[in-house]
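Structure (tokenized):
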């Protein structure tokens, strides 16, 4: 693991911290590689929830612009460095929470939006970045923002390049919660611990169903829900959930 991406375990929660604080966690080759390793660690079965955050005053300001000169083939760089990590976040069979502790710009904004949930510090802001240097959104930015905000709002934000405040992001549903800057790590740990104590297989199957529903017909979604529900009813957590309900006690989900 590179020291530009750190991982830490607290029970079943894995926290991944982008760690180039002096560059607001801009994504250089070492961060891309470190994130890839960290996401592989996140796939381990005993990890039941993941937090992605940034060290220092930034979340992530996207591509390290000083590396552009050394990147002759941008399309290949996207395919090799960005796409595997974005797809790995979506493929993780557990919830991924972006704790947006500061500015999220360009591909940093896309990364936050690739996650399943977002909370923000009151000092955070969301900066499209791409259009500021004449680029189109990448790292899945158009895909995720279009779905979270709706095409009209997402286009207006991404094509204008204007900065969205944490409160504005809350108002638009881009984040679910805004907390004081000095409390974001603690709140992220709390939220993640709650998710980690949930029925992890059921949550993973719900994630898969929603991801599929974005681009499937009603008929296809009904077919997949039947398949996934059959799988969900085979889990120990389903048995525990029903038993706890009948015994009028809180469930204790083990994640299996
Ligand atoms: O290559 C490919 O594969 C293509 C992929 C492209 C994907 C992309 O992400 S394109 C978009 C890239 N990101 C940006 O354009 C954002 C650039 N940054 C900014 O506009 C500003 O930094 C912010 C508005 C985000 C924050 O402003 P502020 O005033 O809070 O901080 P600052 O002073 O600008 O930045 C602090 C330091 O971070 C500074 O370094 P220094 O001068 O103290 O040594 C600054 O240069 C550095 N920094 C910020 N963003 C980047 C960066 N260094 C490299 N790359 C950056 N993206």
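Design, position by position:
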């Amino acid at each position: 693991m590179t020291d530009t991406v750190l991982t830490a375990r607290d029970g079943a929660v894995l926290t991944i911290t982008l760690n180039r604080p002096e560059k607001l966690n801009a994504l250089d080759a070492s961060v891309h590689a470190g994130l890839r390793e960290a996401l592989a660690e996140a796939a381990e079965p005993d990890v039941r929830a993941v937090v992605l955050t940034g060290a220092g005053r930034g979340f992530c300001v996207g591509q390290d612009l000083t590396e552009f000169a050394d990147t002759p083939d941008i399309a290949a760089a996207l395919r090799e460095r960005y796409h595997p990590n974005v797809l790995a976040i979506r493929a993780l069979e557990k919830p991924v929470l972006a704790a947006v502790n500061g500015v999220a710009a360009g591909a940093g904004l896309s990364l936050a939006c690739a996650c399943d949930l977002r909370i923000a510090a009151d000092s955070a802001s969301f900066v499209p970045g791409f259009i500021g240097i004449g680029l189109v959104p990448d790292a899945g930015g158009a895909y995720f923002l279009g779905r979270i905000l709706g095409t009209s709002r997402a286009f207006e934000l991404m094509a204008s390049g204007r900065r969205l405040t944490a409160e504005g992001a809350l108002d638009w549903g881009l984040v679910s919660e805004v907390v004081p800057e000095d409390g974001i790590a603690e709140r992220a740990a709390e939220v993640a611990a709650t998710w980690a104590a949930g029925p992890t297989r059921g949550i993973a199957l719900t994630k898969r169903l929603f991801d599929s529903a974005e681009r499937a017909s009603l008929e296809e979604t009904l077919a997949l829900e039947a398949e996934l529900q059959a799988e969900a009813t085979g889990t120990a957590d389903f048995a525990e959930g029903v038993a706890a309900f009948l015994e009028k006690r809180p469930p204790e989900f083990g994640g299996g």
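Reviewer-requested clarification: The chain has two domains: 5-196, 200-247. Residues 149 and 172 are 7 Å apart (CA to CA).
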